[in-house]
Design brief:
Blueprint: H1 2-8, H2 28-59, H3 62-71, H4 79-89, H5 91-115, H6 120-130, H7 135-148, H8 154-183, H9 185-204, H10 210-220, H11 224-231, H12 247-260, H13 262-277, H14 279-284, H15 286-293, H16 298-319, H17 328-346, H18 352-379, H19 386-395, H20 399-414, H21 416-437, H22 439-443
Length: 452
């Protein structure tokens, strides 16, 4: 039923010209995946904000807050294996299964909240459980989009996909904070659980579209049964007498490919750096900054998170423009430098209003950086290695929980502003160093923002 509704409603988009920012919606799979990603992202933001504030208030400890944030990314260590398995069983199957799991865990938290038995220790345990797979969600989204999009439309598709996260940080943060303050954690979790469940259902209906892939396959004379497997985002049938390599072998192949491809290696190092140096300041530590630096409540926290997301949304929309012919590597590096400088300035802010303005600018620079980063990575990845390469990229996100934990300790020693300033300066220095070290590889092939 859900599949029929979403197949019919976007029908007029099929008559759109092939150029323009909305061209990706010509693809059936994208019309399912975009709302699925949107609902899941909203649920992520609402859940992170609500539980982060709950842990901070109940324990009155910034260290416990950073532990909670770190647990959400514990699965980065197994992200490459998840990428390997997604290559085997299909990105759609893996992603929809993960989102069904989020709904189950959210349902447990909802039940505990309504019965009055919710405790910070339980929140940490369940955060560790969902954290095993949650870091892989974003990577698998990108892999599924890359499977469905013609190369000329990929940048626009990733820019629009990025808006699911950006709007979630705007509306999800404000909605989550407002609902938590007004009706409590139990009713808020009813909405979060429903979002996860709907996201899983829509993801299951997101099949690889036949328009582009089928036409290419027919021209190449691809066998019908193999075409059918590809259109379902499933592995092609292989000869029964050829055993599949083990997951560990496939994981090793992905690691070796990244290590021996300078362009991929540079992008993965950037992923490691951004998640260590800047994301802890604008994500995990935001409840602490709201309460102890800007002296506001959960509503003010929602405003801070939403302001960064508004800037990111503007940047994402800008990246969907057709006709831009600038090399993505240049945009990424320049935007990353500006991003770190803005974060350094944000660390010096003392009022809620000034913090909101700086986060708005930070969000804009962040979006330009990360959209370019993702498109370069996907464009440089062969389709059959895409899941495991995205898994290796997600492995780099393990620097985020490390950055959070170290920041939690440093804040107790030297304070928030000194810690945030140190992180921004270190991130800025290494952004420039990586650009200089791999400048030839980043510029060796042109990856443009143009949409045909």
């Amino acid at each position: 039923m859900v599949g029929q509704v979403f197949s019919i409603l976007p029908g007029p988009l099929l008559e759109m010209p092939s150029i323009g920012a909305l061209a990706p919606f010509r693809i059936r799979s994208y019309r399912f995946q975009w709302p699925a990603d949107l609902l899941t992202s909203w649920a992520f933001e609402m859940e992170t904000l609500v539980l982060g504030w709950y842990v901070l208030v109940e324990t009155n400890s910034v260290l416990m807050l950073t532990i909670f944030g770190a647990l959400l990314y514990g699965g980065t260590l197994i992200a490459p294996l998840i990428g390997v398995w997604s290559d085997r069983i299909g990105h759609r199957v893996m992603l929809s299964s993960m989102r069904a799991g989020y709904a189950v865990v959210a349902g447990i938290l909802m039940t505990l909240a309504f019965t009055g038995t919710l405790r910070p220790e339980v929140v940490l345990v369940l955060a560790a459980l969902t954290g095993l797979v949650r870091p892989s969600d974003m990577g698998l989204r990108g892999a599924l989009i890359a499977d469905t999009m013609p190369p000329a439309t990929l940048t626009a598709a990733m820019g629009i996909a990025r808006t699911t996260t950006d709007t979630a940080r705007i509306c999800g943060a404000l909605t989550g904070a407002g609902m938590f303050a007004v009706i409590g954690i139990g009713p808020t979790y009813v909405v979060i659980t429903a979002f996860y469940l709907l996201g899983a259902i829509l993801t299951w209906n997101a099949l690889v579209p036949g328009a582009v892939q089928a036409a290419a396959a027919e021209q190449d004379g691809e066998p019908k049964n193999e075409l059918k497997a590809e259109l379902k985002n499933e592995p092609k049938n292989e000869p029964k007498n050829e055993p599949k390599p083990s997951p560990w072998r496939e994981l090793w192949e992905g690691l070796v490919l990244v290590w021996n491809t300078p362009r991929l290696l540079a992008i993965v190092w950037y992923a490691f750096l951004f998640n260590f140096a800047v994301f802890p300041l604008t994500n995990g530590l935001m409840p602490y900054a709201a309460r102890d630096i800007f002296h506001t409540d959960q509503t003010g926290l929602g405003y801070l998170v939403a302001s960064g997301a508004i800037g990111a949304l503007i940047g994402s929309i800008g990246m969907t423009r057709s006709g831009m012919r600038t090399e993505l590597a240049k945009i990424m590096i320049v935007a990353a430098v500006i991003w770190h400088i803005l974060v350094l300035v944000f660390a010096q802010m003392t009022t809620l209003e000034s913090g909101i303005v700086m986060l708005l600018l930070c969000g804009f620079a962040q979006s330009l950086t990360m959209v370019c980063h993702t498109v370069i990575l996907l464009s440089a990845s062969e389709p059959r290695y895409r899941g495991r390469i995205m898994g290796v990229r997600m492995l780099a996100i393990y620097s985020l929980p490390l950055g959070l934990l170290i920041a939690g300790l440093l804040i107790g020693l030297i304070g928030y502003r000194a810690t945030a300033s140190l992180y921004a300066i270190v991130g800025l220095a290494f952004t420039v160093l990586i650009a200089v070290r791999w400048r030839a590889s980043l510029w060796q092939s042109r990856t443009l923002t143009g949409v045909s």
